Amino acid sequence: MTSDIRKLPTGFGRLWSAQTISSLGDGVTHAALVDRWDRRRTMWVTDAARAVLIGIPAAAAVLDILSIPLLAAVAFLLGLGGLLFDTAATAYLPDLLRRDPALLESANAASFMLSALLVRTLPAMPRPVPEAGDSLLRQARAGASYVFRDRLLLGLALRPAVGNVAFLAVETVLALFAHDRLGTGTALTCTAAVEGLAILGLAAAPNPYVAGLPLALCGAGMGATMVLGPSLRQAIVPAHLMGRVASASRMPAMCAAPVGAFLGGWPATTHDIRTPLYAAAVLLLSMTAVTASMTSNRRVEAARRAAAAAADRPDHQTPEKPAEASAADVS
Fold it and tell me: Count of CB atoms within 10 A of residue 296's CB?
């Protein structure tokens, strides 16, 4: 069956389309349902259903009835389950974090206990025969010596070690630095501009070594955006609308992904590989200019104040429409 799918160029495309069509076609409706349902129950029921769905292709293969339409149907249902779970989790997280911190600590402890129980159920494997006469320290030293004496293994070990020092040092403070020095709105605008300029630098790079710098800048900008954007949305959106707002915010990105893949591959084929990079840079910088006033510091602070005022009301009723900032919107 796998070989048959590989022989069909459209086989994997059909499966991918089936998995994503649920979120592209009806994401907002699913989000409205999630906001009506109990979010915790939605997550565990969805995961249980997906566990059953994953077993269907295996059973179909045993019965010799596996087919592309069956796989497409399973992929569609898995995509639907993923949409429901992600939307419910996004909406549930802010409520969970507002509770007693002891709850999160207890949840972490319970997760480790569950992991221990699951690992305990794994089949036992024969242990390696210990080398006679060797102490534990000598055996540990032998393993370390094996790595440090082999330049290939040493290189493989040094890359993630140094990378973790650099990347985690940057990621730990990047979003907070941007927020504290620039303000959330200006930080979002700057990170978007950095991404556009980095792609422009990548397009103009004369060699792969120079191209590494703009790629690193683009990654830093994306990392900061992925922290600031969702955090701001969770802070200003009413709890009863969180699922629908998260899904509605996610849908344009989901719909745009295949368009970007097509528009990137087409000019690269008809012209050259740098053309889509220049086009992407122009698109990103244009988007930054258009949305700069929409996400300015003043508008962000106005939305935060409105959300805080709504949370302080005795009935905790929040308006269905977002608060509008002043017309004179300057970051």
Answer: 22
Q: What confidence category does residue 50 fall into, taking pLDDT thresholds of 50, 70 and 90? A: very high
Q: Which domains are delineated in the chain?
A: 2-96 (no CATH), 163-312 (1.20.1250.20)
| Residue 173 pLDDT exceeds 50 | yes
Residue type, 190: C
Using the structure block, give the residue that is written with the tokens 């565990």. 44
Rounded alpha-carbon distances, angstroms, from residue 308 to 166, 305, 321: 37, 5, 15
| CA 168/CA 187 separation, integer angstroms | 20
| Chain mean pLDDT for the chain | 76
- CA gap 90, 37 in Å, rounded: 14
- Residue whose entry in the numeric block shows the structure tokens 């393993």: 143
Alpha helices in the chain (DSSP H): 2-7, 11-36, 39-62, 68-97, 101-120, 136-149, 151-182, 184-204, 208-236, 242-270, 275-291, 297-312
Asked if the model's pLDDT at residue 196 lies above 50, the reply is yes
Which residues lie below 8 Å from residue 168, measured CB to CB, with a gap of 6+? none
Q: What is the mean pLDDT of residues 143-152?
A: 83
> What percentage of the chain carries pLDDT values higher than 90?
6
Distances (CA, A) of 101 to 59, 216, 311: 43, 35, 20
User: Average of pLDDT values for 164-181?
Assistant: 67
Phi, psi (5° rounding) for residue 66?
-70, 135
Whether the Cβ atoms of residue 68 and residue 78 lie closer than 8 Å to each other: no
